[in-house]
Each structure stands twice: as structure tokens, then as C-alpha cells.
Amino acid sequence: MAEEYEKLLDKLYSNLPAKRTSGERFEIPIAKCFVQGNKTVIGNYGEIYSRLRRTPEELSKYLFKELATPGVISGQQLILQSKVNPRLVNEKITSYCEIYVICRECGKPDTHLDAVNRNVRMLVCEACGAKKPVRF
Ligand SMILES: [Zn+2]
Q: What's the number of CA atoms in the CB half-sphere (13 Å) around residue 130?
């Protein structure tokens, strides 16, 4: 009986129209980390900063500070000079997105940062035009 019900559900779901991709929430890219000796390498760093439309330096500066470790950008990888929990790396990338990438008004990641002064930049949304000052 339960099996029949499952089958019926499957049938119902398979008949639903395909999910539309437009208007879906932006997915923050997941860092693929691996430890190499005493270092942590983010193997897909290039993919992350380009998805966020930030320079490799902007994002790495934040990560070095938040993770309290120095590091170097090496091609498409970011090398952190200590062992860091990958979950922590991803938490920091998420908080970077929330502060410096995602528009608070419309939730889209189509933003850029305009310089205001040494400590403040303007997060400008290209989708809805909202502006918000952010501190560095
Ligand atoms: Zn917006």
C-alpha cells in the first residue's frame, strides 16, 4: 500500500514542470579545500572569486584576516599557510558574500564596489540600483 502511494507521488512529481532557473536564489560557491603538509589549499579559488565578481586580492585579504592566517594566491588556487578547517573557510566565504557581494534589497549578487574613501566603499547593485556603504 505504502509502495503504491510512493509510486503515485513519484508520478505526480515527475509531471511537474521543470524548475525555472531565473529568480532563484544565488548559490554561494563552495570552496574545495585540501591540506598539503601544514598548508590548506583552496583548489577552486579562481572559480569562487570570478563567480563573486571580485578580484583575487579583495577576497583573499578578507580570508587572511578572518582566518587569521597569511597566504598566497597561486594561479587559480589560494594557499593558506596553516591548517584550516574547510567548514570555517566556507563560513567565511559566506559571510564575505553577505557583506560585500549580495544586494540587501533584491538578494542578487550582481554588484560592484565603488571606492568612497580608504575605509568605506559603496556596494552598488546592478540589478536594482540599490547602494549601501560597506566598511573595510
Ligand atoms: Zn539589488
A: 14
Residue 61 DSSP one-character state: H
Closest CA to 36 of 88, 75, 71, 1: 71
Tens-digit pLDDT profile for residues 71-100:
999 999 999 999 999 999 999 999 999 999
> What CATH number has the domain spanning 28-101?
3.30.70.3150
Distance 112 CA to ligand 1 centre (A): 11
pTM for the full predicted model: 0.80
CA of 29 from ligand 1 middle (Å) equals 19
- Cα radius of gyration (the chain): 20
